Amino acid sequence: MTIQNYLKIPVVALAVAYLSGCASLLNEDTQEISVRVMCSGKAVQSYCVAENSKGSWSFNSPGKVTVAGDNRGLNITCKTQFSQPLTVKAPALPSWEMAGNLLVGGIIGGAVDLYNNKGLRYPENIDISHSLCK
Question: What is the assigned CATH class of domain 3-133?
Answer without folding.
Answer: mainly beta
